Amino acid sequence: MSEKSNSSQFQSKLRPYLIRLFQVFIVICLVDGLFDIIYPVATVAQKKIGSVISEIKNSGPMELNESQEVIIPASGFPFRNEPGIRNIVSEYHSKSINVTADGLRYNGQAPPEKVNYVGFLLGSSTAFGYGVADNQTIAAHLERALNHTQIYNYAGLAQPVPDNILRWYDLQKRNGKPDFFILAGVNYQLYNDCQPIPRTYIPASLQSNIFLYLTDKLIGKLSNEKIMPCASSESLELAVRNSILSIENAVTFARKNGVPFYIINLPSPYDANVNVDNILNAANTADYISMRKVFSHYHEELTKLDIPEFIDLSRALPADKTYFLDMGGHLSKEGNRLISEKIFDHIWGNKSQVATRFPQHTQSTGYIGLTL
Predict the structure, then answer these.
(1) What share of the chain is helix, strand, coil (3-state, %, to 5)?
(2) Which residues pair with 71 in a beta bridge?
(3) For residues 354 and 50, what is the distance between their CA atoms, to the nearest angstrom?
(4) Pairing with 248, which of 7, 62, 81, 266 sits 20 to 30 Å away (CA)?
(5) Residue 372: CB partners within 8 Å, gap ≥ 6?
(6) pLDDT digits over 341-370, tens only?
(7) How far apart are alpha carbons 41 and 61 in whole angstroms?
(8) How far apart (Å, rounded) are the C-alpha atoms in residues 179 and 282?
(9) How far apart are CA 129 and CA 132, in angstroms?
């Protein structure tokens, strides 16, 4: 009887603790479930509020006196993916940034009264004009410099060269052939393959769980360790070769296409003799050193290319100041102006040569005119 009595007393004492433990467990489960409901809603609400705030900011008068001012939606650009074509910018409208549903960015100015020539600009975010207003993009500058020529800016965001080529094919299939194509920013392929990435990373598909998301954020704050995809000589060689092959494939496609084209290597913060004083800091110095080695090898291989349509502008910017908005290579408004002048000089030389480079545009090309 004594053993049974002791056992009963022990169970009686243990039971309240077990009940409390079970209650705590239930509360944790309920809180976790609540967060799983609230967190996605809060994320969507934050994006919507950010978009509204961005629109309010952009709707007022905007004075852009500093070359380093960045103009982007507070909630980021909306985009969509098509098979084989990533990050086509979706429809977006504000005072400074306007994009149609087809991913065509406005040039911030009325189109020419008389249009003799039509050109398409393709590429990644620098060609798109990430960080600057519509009238400060490369496409806008070129359109102002050319006589009776309309430039359609169909560049995307974080869009490698193979995606650009398929975008080229798709646009031409739907709209007909323009008078010329310009593919600008082919070095994004290399940047995309070799940019350092955090060692602790939780895929976006798992970030809907609040606890996983907060854990990822905490670890990211405590650790700056990153993976360098192109640290070894073998991986660097593969990345550079992939970039060179993407350029060669673009040239092959373009030549079969039968429309005049130009493929442009835009400047990056990792090129030689480039001023990055205003964007380089202690947090990104290691990444910068790593990427400088990558781009140095890349430029060695570029010099071996024998492609008349290829224009290398990696040394086109003066070193007097920084013409980049960030270490991603996005150009400031002044940087876009300078690069546009270089593109114009390389392709046309002067305005009198435009007509000799391109025959006057006629309906026989099959191009379907677009109206902004």
Answers:
(1) 50, 15, 40
(2) 131
(3) 44
(4) 81
(5) 100, 104, 106, 107, 111
(6) 999 999 988 655 555 555 544 433 444 444
(7) 33
(8) 47
(9) 6
